[in-house]
């Protein structure tokens, strides 16, 4: 492996950080546009008769969009952490995955979902929950050891 102070390695890392910064900018623009789109959808649905009433399908669509925007925000935060650190932060990635799977579960129509999809989602959320738990307990043990 190359030495960390090698010019080639430094230039590759610099280009990669530029790419991640560009992706953060693109994601930010997408979040702004999707938030504006969400507001326009709500505004025009409020104006339609019957005024100020939403149907259930619209609520599912709005909730899904809000959760997707939240996932985008968390993704931006994790990319910014990647830029500022030398390692890939696994904990924020697990948190984003949990939010994404929960988004799918919240907006899923149970009546039209087959058994294997439900079992797969249950296994996925269980695995992510265990990963979150073990990662959290590992960090707490590390903090306790640093204090002593």
Strand and helix layout:
Layout: H1 7-47, H2 56-84, H3 90-107, H4 115-147
Question: What is this structure, in a nutshell?
Answer:
The protein is an all-alpha fold. The chain has four helices and no strands.
For the secondary structure, the number of strands is 0
**Class from secondary-structure proportions:** mainly alpha
Average per-residue pLDDT, rounded, comes to: 86
Q: Please describe the biggest sheet, giving its number of strands, its sense, and whether it closes into a barrel.
A: none
SS field, number of helical segments = 4
Name the overall outline.
extended
Estimate the strand proportion: under 5%
Name the poorly predicted regions. Answer: none
Total domains: 1
In sequence order, what are the helices and strands, one letter per element? HHHH
Give me the Rg, rounded. Answer: 21 Å
Distance between the termini: 36 Å
Helical fraction equals over 70%
Could you name the key traits of this structure?
148 residues; mainly alpha; 0% strand
Molecular structure report:
With 148 residues, this protein is an all-alpha fold. It has one domain (7-147). The chain is built from four helices and no strands. The longest helix is centred in the N-terminal third of the chain and has 41 residues, at 7-47. It is extended, with a radius of gyration of 21 Å. The mean pLDDT is 86.
């Amino acid at each position: 492996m190359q030495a960390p102070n090698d010019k080639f390695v430094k230039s590759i890392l610099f280009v990669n950080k530029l790419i991640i910064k560009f992706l953060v900018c693109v994601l930010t623009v997408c979040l702004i546009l999707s938030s504006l789109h969400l507001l326009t959808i709500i505004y025009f649905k409020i104006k339609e008769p019957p005024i100020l009433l939403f149907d259930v399908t619209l609520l599912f669509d709005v909730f899904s969009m809000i959760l997707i925007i939240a996932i985008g925000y968390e993704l931006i935060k994790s990319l910014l952490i990647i830029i500022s650190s030398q390692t890939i932060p696994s904990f924020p990635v697990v948190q984003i995955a949990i939010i994404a799977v929960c988004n799918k579960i919240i907006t899923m129509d149970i009546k039209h979902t087959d058994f294997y999809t439900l079992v797969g989602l249950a296994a996925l959320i269980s695995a992510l929950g265990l990963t979150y738990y073990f990662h959290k307990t590992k960090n707490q043990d590390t903090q306790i050891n640093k204090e002593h």
